[in-house]
User: What shape does this take?
Amino acid sequence: MATKPTFSQEISNLLYATHGNPTKTCIQCGTCSGTCPVADFMDQTPRRLIGMINADLKEDVLDSNTYWFCASCFHCTARCPSGIDIAAVMYAVKRYSIWNKTYSEDLVGPTFSETFAKSIARSGRSFEPILAPTYMFSMGIKELLQEAHMGTQMMLKGRMPLLPPRIKRLDNFKKMIRRIIPLGGGK
Amino acid sequence: MKKYAYFPGCSLEKVAWSYNDSSIETAKILGVELQELADWNCCGATAYSHVDQLLAYTLVARNLAQAEKEGLDMVAPCSACYKNSYFANKYIKEDADLSEHINYALEEDDLQFNGSIDVHHIIDIYANEVGVEGIKAKVKKPLEGLKVAAYYGCQIVRPRKGAEDLEDPQFFEDIVKAMGAEAVDYPDRLRCCSASLIMTSRRAALDMVQKLLQSAVNSGADVIATACPLCQVNLECYQLQVNEEFGTKYKVPVMYFTQLLGLALGIPKKKLGIGSELVSAVPVFK
Assistant: This one.
C-alpha cells in the first residue's frame, strides 16, 4: 500500500545536510521561545510552531508569520536540548512555502529572498539597490523619507554601490547554476 | 605567518569598505598575508537557503574550490560569509553524495573541490593565530581609557562548530584588552542585530536594534565594536530611525574591531576608513 509522507516528515526531509535532529524529538520545553529575540513579533512562538509541525497542522503552520520573522541568529539551535537545528527548520518551512507559494501576501521576506537569489544568479554578486523595491512598498511616507535620507548619507560616504558588480566568469557561473536547478537562474 | 585566501564578500565592496581597508591594513602589520580570491561570488547570504539549499552550498563551493586551487585556507571578515563557507565546507567534507552533486556543477567552471581546506573568520585568525601576545607586541598607541562594548552578534559564534563556549565566549574581549582598551560588561553582546529583518520586518528590527543600543549605553561603552558588516549597518545607520521611532537620542559610534585595532597599531585613521561613519566616531578619539 502506498503511503504519503506526513507534513512533519516532509519538513524533516527538508533538513537535508544540516545534521539536526528531526522535529519529532522536540520535548516542548520552550527554551527556543525563551531565547528567540523576535518571539514577541511572531504570531506563534517557535515552540508552538514545532508542536504544530509535529501535529501535522500544515495549513496553520504555513499561515503563520513565525518562520519569516526568524533572523537566523541560531540562538535556539545552540540551546535546544534535543539537538534540533530550529533555525534550519525555519529555513525548511520557508523553502516549502516558497516552492508551494503558500506564504501570506503581506510578508516582505519571501519576495525579498527570491529577488536576492535571482539577482545573484544574474551577476554573481549582490547589489543592494535592486532589492529596495521588494521592501519599500511596505513602508509609509515617513519611513521612505528616512530611508532616502540614510541612502543619501551613505552615498556621500562612498558606501552605496552605483553600478551592479559582476563576476568575471559569469557564463560558467550561470551554467553551473543550471546544473543544480535546470530551469531556474542563469537566464 | 600563514597566507590565506581572502574572501571579502559583497558588503565589503561598498557598504562596509572601511572594514575591507582596515582588515587589509591590520593584517599587514600583524604579518597575516591575505590574497584576495580572484573571482569570488556571493555566499548566498541567508536568502539563497530560503530558496534552495543545494544551490546555496554550490555557490559557496565555487569560492572554496578557488581557494583550494591556490592551496590556501580561506578567511572571511563577514560573519555570514564565514558561517556559510564554514558549514558548506564541513558538510561537503562529510557527505560524499553532496560533494558529488556539487562537483558535477563545478565542472562548468573548470573547478573541483576536494575538501582539503579550512575556513576562518578574521577575528579567529587574530585571536588564535596571531594571539593576544602577538597583538600586544605590535601595539604602538594603546587605546587607554576607551570603553568598548565587544559585540559578537550571531554567526561568528553560532551554530556550534566544536567544543567552544557558546554562552560565554571571551575571544573578542581579549582582543579589545590587547588593544589597551577596556572591555565593558555588555550583557547583550550575543543578541541578534536583526540581520535582514531590517529590510523585511522593519518594526521588529528597530525594536531589536534599540535594545542593543540601550544595553550598550547602560554598560557605559564609548563605542560598540563589531565583526560583521550587517551588524554595523543595523546598529549604526539605523540609529536615526530608532531615535525617531522610540524618542531616544542615541549617538553611539559603531566601529569595526579592525578599525579600533588599527588605531592601536598606529595606522593612520584615513587608511582605516574612519570618517565613513554616519554616527561620528570623533568622541572615540577625544
The mean pLDDT of chain A is 88. Chain A touches chain B through 69 residues (CB under 8 Å).
